[in-house]
Write a structure and sequence with these properties.
The complex is a heterodimer of chains A (250) and B (190). Chain A is of the alpha+beta class and 250 residues long. Chain A has 5 helices and 5 strands; from the N terminus they run αααβββαββα. In chain A, strands 1, 2, 3, 4 and 5 form a 5-stranded antiparallel beta sheet that branches. In chain A, 20% of the residues are buried. The model of chain A is unreliable at 201-218 and 220-224 (pLDDT under 50). Chain B has 2 domains: 16-98; 103-185, Gyrase A, domain 2 (2-Layer Sandwich). Chain B is built from 4 helices and 4 strands. In chain B, α3 (103-117) crosses α4. Chain B is rod-shaped and about 160 Å long. The mean pLDDT of chain B is 84. The chains are: A alpha+beta (250), B alpha+beta (190). Chains A and B meet through α1, α2, β3, α4 and β4 of A and α1, α2, α3 and β1 of B.
Amino acid sequence: MPPKSKITTKELYQQYIFMFRFYFFPIFILAVFLLVGIFAVYPSVTTLFDNFSKVDELKLNSEKKQERISKLEALREGSGKTQEYLSYINRIAPIEKTRVTDFQGSISKISQQNNLEIKSARGGEEIIQEENSTDTSTLLVEVPMHFSITGPFQNLKNFLSDIYKGDDFIIIEEMELSKEDSSSDWTMQITLVKYQFISQEKIPDESGVDPGSSGDQLPEEANPEEVNLEDFIPNQDVLKFLDEKYINAE
Amino acid sequence: MARFKGFQFNLLPPKSKELVKKEDKRSFSMLYAALLIFTIVALWLGVNLVNAYVDSNIVTRWEKTNRDEDAQIVSYQSEAEDNYELYVKSQGLSGVVTKHTDPDLVFNLIDLRIKESTPGVNIVAYSRNSSGHYQITGTTKKQQDVATLINDFLDDENIKDITLLSLKASTEGNSEFILDIELSTNATEE
């Protein structure tokens, strides 16, 4: 074999130039491939996956909304009953200005019907709130009245019974019935309580419309978009009470 | 690749075998490169087509479904508000309705028990405190009546939480005992 000639730097440089020119087109195409891949295909694929995610999200939202609609349909089916319960609750504890005068008047009437004498009467007002209640928009107000009434024992018993059975929802909070020493009459110290709901200042609902006559609002810390009003389950004991005491009794 | 060999008179020196091999290899490389470009462009077009389909059909359809469902939900707004109003008010009244009992019913029950078991006991006071417990104060000449009465109350399933608060001799010198009994009841109207 003939001895290899020595390659000078110039020849090496010329070789590189040749190689570059020789492979320029394939390299250029590869570069174009990569550029198209990075700047065109990759964003398109990302957008495609974003769209798939969006579809998944929309599907999930739709499923949740379907669940809500099912619940709302059930509520619409039972709306007659709900209205009936509400009308009785509004009778029991109305949303009106304080009714102390009316309350005292109705007690006086019942005592007169039972031939009893009201020795004294005094009243007041106290706001009570459920300990675990998150709703501060509708407050339950207690309107207590303290009475001192005297009369025959049977009449006093009838008076208590009339209060219990009457249309007006009045609670006998405290009571002390004792026989008077000097006569056959009995004296009754009694605290009767009437309840009413009062609504605080109103806030706009989801649609920006005033919630309406009820004055009920969402819980303070709740975001309207996160709270579904149909998810709140009314107290079953109270509904049972309304059924037994008023609805089924009529 | 086929090569044209018609002319043998070329002023340029003939290409070396090595160079001819390299040129053949480069020709294949260019073919691959062209395929590469075609593939990437086809992929890009394909992805864009799928994207356009997904965007214009599937996404739009689901967005419309969601909008329709929103409109449907809004149409149920009044029922939802009524439900919430009922919830708030029933929660507010939950502690109240349990207090709504008829004291007359309890008095009659107590009177009946006393009349049947201990007619010697004379009730002089009835009371009810805010916790819902009833208290009766009575007098009797026989101390034994107290035990009989309490036993009788214990046997009655409508009377519970019976506590004898006090039993003391009357200070009026009439040899009577005064008793205070606290109880609660689950008696209901029939």
